[in-house]
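Subgroup meeting minutes
Present: P.N., E.W., G.H.
Scribe: E.W.

1. P.N. recapped why we're keeping a running log of single-chain structure predictions: easier to compare across weeks, and new members can see raw inputs and outputs side by side.
2. G.H. added today's entry (107 aa).
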Amino acid sequence: MGDSLFVIETTYCWYIEELEDSFERIVLMYFINGIPFTFDELEDITPSEEDLPRIKIVADYEKRYSSEELYRFYGYLMQEEMHPLVFPIELENPEDLPPDYVEEEKF
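Output recorded in log:
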């Protein structure tokens, strides 16, 4: 395990969609070395009914992210060529990327 590796982490948190009618929802947020880069809707990961209270407790204790904040983090990761879904990055745990992510084959 070298110093150049990046780590993918996930947690449940509140996401605030800032539109005309703002609303909040719990999402599974993905981070690269602590910087959020994408999220999955709960409907997409289909947690069990028993997991929902635990998920809400976790989300309540995590930082809330707005669409504006995620846009700024996206811009930073793109500028630094560190967005793991866009750029080839050496990851310590690539298996923790979002399940619908498919890496392009290298020719």
